[in-house]
Amino acid sequence: MQYRTMPGSDEKLSALGYGCMRLPTHVGGPASSLIDTPKAKAQILGAIERGVNYLDTAAPYHLGASESFLGEHILSDSALRQRVNIATKLPCMRIKTTDAMGATFDKQLAKLRVDHFDYYLLHALDGPGWDKMVELGVVEFMERIKAEGRVRHLGFSFHGRKEDFLRIVDAYDFAFAQVQYNMLDERYQAGIEGIDHAHAKGMGIIVMEPLRGGSLVGKIPVSVQKLYDEAEVKRSPADWALRWIWNNPKVTLLLSGMNVDAHIDENIRIACDAPPSGMNEAELAIIDRVRATYRELLQVDCTGCAYCMPCPEGIDIPAAFKNLNNRHMFGRLEPTLFHAAYLGIQTPDGQPHWTSSCVDCGKCEGKCPQHIPIREKFALVQRDLEGPLVKSIAWLGRTMMGGGKKRARP
Question: 72-129: per-residue pLDDT in tens?
Fold first, then answer.
């Protein structure tokens, strides 16, 4: 395993951190709390044995079950606790009062079965979120838990405008920042300028969404694969994407939400063989061309995190945007059929939940960490995937399956 030093300390952190937002589940959904405990435990223990020493979780992950799972099955073992750094986050979006900060923190310590956190973050900050937390006394709260020895390093994760990131970095002596950064999002949100600024102030940089919610791996556009095939050294899409991040020596570590054995194996292999400044100019030029190609194809900058869910009208927002992007990357037929099936037929209640069912409440946009204008993007979904033919096919499918009998034909 490759290790990098957290600035301001002599601590060696594995370049690959284990993100516990997408643990394997019994039902497979990213927002499910039904963690497949034996599988998740075996995967995390295997990663620790191979050198991963940073585990990242948060109060909302798996509807609150991620912290409890780690506490019961990993951190309750004192020997394992000594081998890993545990990071979790204060759910700033839920904090309404000053007292709630301390109460939430104490509950997290209890759920994770530890007496201190190695790394503690203010979760999903943006400019207004930071201003709210300052008004509630978060600076005093951070100073207190640090003085009490219940937190070793304080930081924040960020989803907002670059200008707000810069002022938050300058407002408090944070030890590290967690930012979205990948080969498509080099200048998105905090971006490379924010990374450079934080690093210059002696902060560690932790990267999230390195594979953009998995959209940079697996099935990829033919035009992108052709670019990778031109390289002298042949690599998988994951290898290209992760290696590009680790090429930046200012990155302390990146987090991957791993839940497939083969993916864990591949990520650890790459982490062992991706030194800082290890890519040559020809390889970086290929990444530039890949980025430009993706930008031409993608319609929505959705990573599939599902923070926008649940929708009051039952719309599967991440699935709708995934189908839209896939239609433009891989052709019309398969994504269109998936859309008809997933939003029009195979819904939990057997009724259709098209994006055109949106009642314009805006709750999803208030929760989206990417600040996507979801309702505006729904118009693209409706244009490309929810025409009369698709809705008629879905209606026919529901009727044949015995559903939707009491509803009028669309």
Answer: 999 999 999 999 999 999 999 999 999 999 999 999 999 999 999 999 999 999 999 9
Domain 3-295 has CATH 3.10.150.10: no
The burial class, CB within 10 Å (0-12 / 13-18 / 19+), for 267 is buried
* CATH 3.20.20.100 in the chain, residue ranges: 3-295
Listed residue (309, 310, 291) closest to 301, CA to CA? 291
245 conformational bin, left if phi > 0, alpha if psi -120 to 50, beta if neither: alpha
With the C-alpha atoms ordered 347, 350, 356, 361, is the resulting torsion angle positive or negative? Answer: negative
Q: What is the DSSP string of 285-345?
A: HHHHHHHHHHHHH-S-------TTPPPTT---HHHHHHHHHHHHHH-SHHHHHHHHHHHHT
pTM of the model: 0.81
CA dist 94 and 44 (Å) reads: 28
pLDDT digits (tens, 9 = 90+) for 268-309: 999 999 999 999 999 999 999 999 998 888 888 887 888 899
Cβ pair 308, 367 in contact under 8 A:
yes
Q: Which two tokens stand for residue 199?
A: 């690093």
Q: Which two tokens stand for residue 95?
A: 């904090």
3-state secondary structure of 155: strand
Residues 6+ apart with CB under 8 A from 25: 32, 33, 34, 35, 36, 62
**Residue 42 CA from chain centroid, whole number:** 22
Query: Is the distance from CB of 139 to CB of 131 less than 8 angstroms?
Result: no
> What is the DSSP secondary-structure string of 79-106?
HHHHH-EEEEEE-GGG--SHHHHHHHHH
